[in-house]
Fold this protein.
Amino acid sequence: MYGPILSPAWHAIVDITGQLLGSAYLIGSESAHLNDIYDEESKHLEPWTDSPGEVSTYDWRDYLGDPKYQRAYLDFFEDELVLNGYNWQKVLGQYLLQGKEPLINNLISGLGHPLIHLGYAYELSSREVAMEALSMAASSYDHLHKYLDDPSYTKPPPNKTQSPLEILSRLQQDTRFDGLFAHQGSVDLALLFGKHEAEVLEYWNAWHIADPTKEFQASQKAALALLVASHKPGGKKLYDFFIVHILTTSHAVRILLPLLPAKFHVPLVRQWWLLTLVVYILQLRPAIDLSSVTDYNRDGKDWAWVDRQAVAQSKHSLDSHYVKALRAMKTADETWGPEGHFWLNAAVRFAEEFDGWGGFASGASRDAHL
């Protein structure tokens, strides 16, 4: 069964206030700004509703993927936290990593918000955020887990490469996907996988991870290029809301890799890659022009300027995805080095051009896709 990449009820599940507060705090935001962030994000939240019933250690997997049980899952995981002496890492180990089909293999559900939230749990060492991440993963569980859980979907590719950007270039020119969707913002995974599962998996398997560290660096460059280098200079100031999640989930993967058992490293990266391909196709495979980043004139602007845009001097400093994107770019620069100022060029261009989010279906908005 194929569900949408975001269910109609998904915006009610995802409280990303903690993600934005965490990003702003880690960048260096002052307390007054953090209070403003909380007040702004609270406007988008819906009240909790009771679940149809409780979940327990005996049946907690029976309700996976049912958003009506979001409150029950959070209550359950918080109870487990108490029973385990508030050792949140132990609870994550038990419910995220164990079993024949571990929950970690489906963190890309709900546009990757469980993955992003889990990354912030570790960055902030927050047991509350960790239990929320578990609840998100359980409530939004979908069919994509099978591609990680079932090894038969992983096959030797006919045209393997170690470059994600090369694969995205091939996909951009692949006419087999032409006309599949009439507009950006479709969330119809049933149509995509129903008609083109073999082709999607062809591209998924094409990325040959021989040197995990080197290739993960390449994947982070691809994530940043997708957001900024696919945005046409001088065009609309609205950046793609769906594609920004490729960057912020990549940041979460970077945080989690050193902290997870080694056997989950490559599957987690490949899980992110599957989300990347799906979102790229749903957003109509925009062309990527790296020169729009490498040749961008920053006019002397540095990371200190970027930080100020994120926490103080921009009208968008209360926008969670804007702030998280800028921090992900800066962290990538700190991790991999300047690389010809690629990361900084992208961050400055993004901050200077950004004037909101686009990429939605006609009539849809950010609030419907949180």
Observations:
- The longest strand covers residues 239-240.
- Strands lie at 239-240, 357-358.
- Residues 1-13, 365-370 have pLDDT under 50 and may be disordered.
